[in-house]
Design a protein that fits this description.
Rossmann fold; globular
């Protein structure tokens, strides 16, 4: 068997219809996994079993879990990719209680809720892999751009580490992947909105963002497929002894040893 062979494995990728999530779904499928994707809105077409779900809604999570249980009996791989920056920049004074709640629900609680729903079956079978897609913002928060988002991702990192420790003896591995700036539609829209609010050009917005994070030594943003390749390795038999770690994939952006 090839070291990255995922034949016979069932994988759920949340937010799996575009961007990093779609790239992950494609990579896992190419490695032989049976892929299920979820998102709030159904795409025009998808090669994978699609289940509509808003993971900030407990009822949707319950329905998603029931559908998977009835159709597949459970899963072997869970990619918690749903998340995003939805709150305004400008620092603490611009953020309301609702902003904080919104960001925590999307980037932290949704993963906790889905893990809790799907973990019993993984524990029962004595195997499974959970990947939480975080961000380097969890280690490098930018107060004027992504304060609430960064805090929610830092909390996700801590939760993921604790969960990994709890589940290590039960055969379930938990890992975190923290991308830096990645060329996705979400990133493009964020830069456009930021540039518009600041009254600057999109190019100036890109330069400001990259300056804020200290630049990217490799000189470019990541492609979604590059993040997906790391995830593919981490869920494979080649990574069988890895759990509890956070893997930054940022072209060298983080200016500290991590």
């Amino acid at each position: 068997m090839e070291v990255l062979d995922l034949k016979g494995k069932k994988a759920l990728v949340t937010g799996g219809t575009k961007g990093i999530g779609k790239a992950i779904a494609d990579q896992l499928a190419k490695s032989g996994a049976e892929v299920i994707v979820s998102a709030r809105t159904q795409p025009a077409e998808s090669p994978y079993h699609f289940i509509a779900a808003d993971l900030t809604n407990p009822t949707d999570v319950a329905n998603l879990t029931q559908t998977i249980s009835e159709a597949y009996g459970g899963i072997d791989i869970l990619i918690n990719n749903v998340g995003g920056l939805t709150t305004p920049g400008g620092g603490f004074s611009t953020l309301t209680d609702e902003h904080w709640e919104q960001e925590l629900q999307l980037n932290l609680i949704s993963a906790i809720r889905l893990d809790k729903a799907l973990l019993p079956q993984m524990i029962k079978q004595g195997s499974g892999v959970i990947i939480h897609i975080s961000s380097i913002a969890g280690k490098l928060p930018l107060w004027d751009l992504n304060l609430a988002y960064a805090v929610s991702k830092a909390a996700l990192n801590s939760y993921s580490k604790a969960l990994a420790t709890e589940l290590a003896s039960k055969g379930v591995r938990v890992l975190t992947v923290a991308p830096g700036a990645t060329k996705t539609e979400m990133m493009e829209n964020f830069i456009k909105d930021y540039a518009a609010s600041a009254g600057i050009s999109v190019e100036e917005g890109v330069n400001h963002l990259l300056t804020q994070i200290g630049g990217i030594p490799m000189g470019r943003m990541a492609e979604p497929e590059e993040v997906a390749s790391l995830v593919r390795f981490l869920v494979s038999p080649s990574a069988a002894y890895l759990t509890g770690a956070i893997y930054s994939i940022d072209g060298g952006s983080l200016p500290v040893v991590s």
